[in-house]
Amino acid sequence: STPTPPAPPKPDPAKVAAAEAKKAIDAAATALDERDIESAVATLQNAKKIPNVDQASLATIEELLDKANAEKLMHERLEAAEKALEAGRLDEARSLLAGSESTEMFADKHQALSRALDAKLDAEKKQAAAAAAAKAAPKPPERVAEKAPEKPEPPKTAGADTESMQLFEEGKRLLSARQVREAKAALARCVDVNPRFAQCHLLLGAAYAKLNEPDEGARHYEIFLKLAPDAPEAPRVRLMLEQYKGLKK
Questions:
Q1: Which of 30, 31, 115, 205 sits a CA distance of 20 to 30 A from 190?
Q2: Cβ contacts of residue 237 below 8 Å, gap of 6+?
């Protein structure tokens, strides 16, 4: 009788998992290059479920997923900043652009919106200077002797904005480093310098919450919502405030 041929060897589960993981990683990277974040996120989330996947592949998947989610948030902030610019809410647009400056995928859009914001701010300054000059112009002589023309008000400098941005970045860095008390101090100075800096109020509220000072945290969250009601973080902040107020009842 003819001998039965040996059964083919079973595939190595680890090698199969590694191949599937590599295929998913390559597909997600391609999707990110094409700015298709939703596809990249879906592919990576499915890749995390591959059985027997090795730790190196899993680390790469997590890294790409973090990048995709971060870029998704940056894109949402840029979309909100564009709407704020169109509506003339320049402080809100500035806050949103500050919160999305780390984007790599949408750096071109961030740069274009920043230029548009600078142009609008410059136009506002020129308009304010013209109004101040018109106000300071000498009035026509009356019965009394002609009064000396009033001195025009000195134009506002951008120092406060620059200082508040520096304080915001310092507070954000300290908060990421878990130096919460130092972050709170920097962000408190930020809102003192520029009370309409919405993102400063948002991070200051988070700092107070981490320091177990929920009343102060809630107060700054409410200020953030007043200044930036359409920001991407606004729904989450409203939900936290509702839960906090429910606990206080």
A1: 115
A2: 202, 205, 221, 224, 225
Residues in the chain: 249
- Given this model, what pLDDT does residue 6 score? 64
Encoded tokens for 138: 């000498």
Average of per-residue pLDDT values in the chain: 84
**What span, in angstroms and rounded, lies between the C-alpha atoms of 249 and 240?**
15
How many angstroms separate the CA atoms of 20 and 47, rounded?
Answer: 8
CA distances from 222 to 45, 242, 249 (A): 34, 11, 18
Give the tens place of pLDDT for each residue, 24-66. Answer: 999 989 988 898 999 989 999 998 899 888 899 889 999 988 9
Instruction: For 141, list phi and psi in degrees, rounded to 5.
Output: -60, 140
Closest residue by Cα to residue 152 from 137, 174, 171: 137
Structural contact between residues 32 and 68, judged by C-beta atoms closer than 8 angstroms: yes
pLDDT, tens digit (0-9, with 9 covering 90-100), for 189-240: 999 999 999 999 999 999 998 999 989 989 999 999 999 999 898 999 888 8
